[in-house]
Design goal:
Layout (H helix, E strand, L loop, with lengths): L2 H11 L12 E4 L8 E5 L4 H10 L3 E4 L16 H7 L3 E4 L2 H5 L4 H6 L5 E4 L2 E2 L7 E8 L3 H10 L13 E10 L14 E13 L4 H11 L7 E5 L8 E2 L1 E9 H12 L5 E3 L5 E11 L4 H6 L4 E6 L2 H9 L3 E4 L9 H12 L4 E4 L11
Parallel strand pairs: 2-3, 2-17, 3-4, 14-15, 15-16
Antiparallel strand pairs: 1-4, 5-12, 6-11, 7-9, 7-10, 8-9, 12-14, 13-16
Helix pairs in contact: 6-7
């Protein structure tokens, strides 16, 4: 299958529109027309993981953490991104989009304790999804344009992606003296069968969506409208919080270690204490700790937490379990690989055996 079709499947699991505005997610390197047979899933794209990808003949590395995060001034010989591009290995990263998505990183971690009545610790702000894009496309180009917009982050409503409305009609135009019309001739009234395509666009993805629109649309000057929407904030967001059957902190620790496949974790709190209100924040959870405390959590489960944040949790009567950063995220790759394998049996999805947290507890 083509990389572009694979990206569409990635987006259905964790739409890029779910990502934080500061994040860098989606297809980071690769040709959408290239063929794909093997995908290697990893938390971090390290030199060891890249060597593993080469040895397996992987066409794509699905790297949870984006190897291109902050703006870079050069991509040179020796960097993992350069070496991947040189060997025609594409790179895709979901990061915070997968954290927010249903069945993603935080839901997977919450499953370790059987979290019930779960909800986000912090919902996405209403401003994250408050525009509607209306564009007019010739009938023959509709699918190319719509798929490009979906891949750029448009068309997400709640738990659904690739959402759009389509209505057929006729468009008219007269090209000026300097125009180069795709259809018809300049200086003459043209009537073209077109489709009115509408979809929701988060403000944070607007620039990327408009770039995708201009690149995919056949017209020299595509016509489009942007409408501001007002509505209730979505029931999506970062972290998870809910209830578990009452159990001791020690029992929770044992279950979390089994889930993450680690022998040791960091614990702050009385192991004999019974807890039932639990919050989860995979990765680095410091930014969500105040949300957890405010919502009455008794146990905060994360990958890593600073010394002072842990003292704040302790002062608020909240126990903390830290699994180390990537240990709290890695189990999700199994779920992603399984879900993709079910819908794309022609592609081999493999989880990296070289990928591991850089820290161990000695």
């Amino acid at each position: 299958m083509k990389l572009g079709d694979l990206v569409t499947s990635f987006e259905k699991i964790a739409p890029s529109a779910f990502a934080e505005s500061w994040d860098n997610v989606g297809l980071l390197a690769g040709d959408r027309e290239q063929g794909v047979n093997t995908v290697l899933l990893t938390i971090d794209l390290t030199r060891l993981v890249l060597a593993e990808a080469f040895s397996l003949g992987a066409d794509v590395v699905y790297s949870y953490h984006p190897p291109i995060f902050k703006p870079v001034k050069n991509v040179c010989d020796g960097s993992v991104v350069f070496e991947a591009i040189r060997r025609n290995v594409a790179i895709y990263s979901p990061h915070t989009a997968l954290d927010v998505a249903a069945g993603g990183t935080n839901d997977n971690l919450a499953d370790a304790l059987g979290l019930l009545e779960r909800k986000p610790l912090r919902t996405l702000p209403s401003g994250e999804r408050d525009l509607k894009l209306v564009v007019f496309s010739p009938v023959g180009s509709l699918e190319v344009v719509s798929q490009a917009l979906f891949a750029a982050g448009a068309g997400v409503i709640g738990q659904y992606s690739n959402c759009s409305f389509r209505g057929e009609g006729e468009g008219t135009f007269v090209g000026g003296a300097e125009a180069n019309p795709t259809v018809g001739e300049r200086g003459r009234l043209e009537v073209v069968k077109e489709v009115k395509l509408e979809m929701v666009v988060p403000i944070s993805r607007l620039e990327a969506v408009l770039v995708a629109l201009r690149q995919s649309h056949p017209y020299e000057e595509p016509a489009y409208d942007l409408l501001r929407l007002h509505g209730a904030p979505p029931s999506l967001g970062a972290g998870r919080i809910g209830n578990v059957a009452p159990r001791t902190l020690a029992s929770c620790v044992d279950a979390l270690k089994r889930h993450a496949g680690v022998a040791h974790v960091l614990v702050s709190g009385d192991l004999g204490r019974v807890v039932s209100r639990v919050a989860f924040a995979a990765g680095s959870g410091g930014d969500l700790l105040s949300d957890a405390i405010r919502q009455g959590t008794e146990l905060f489960v994360t990958g890593e937490l600073s010394h002072h944040a842990t003292l704040s949790a302790q002062s608020a009567g909240v126990a903390v379990v830290c699994l180390l950063h990537s240990n709290s995220e890695r189990r999700t790759l199994e779920s992603v690989a399984s879900r993709l394998g079910e819908v794309l049996p022609e592609v081999s999805f493999l989880q990296s055996q070289s990928d591991r947290d850089p820290f161990v507890i000695g």
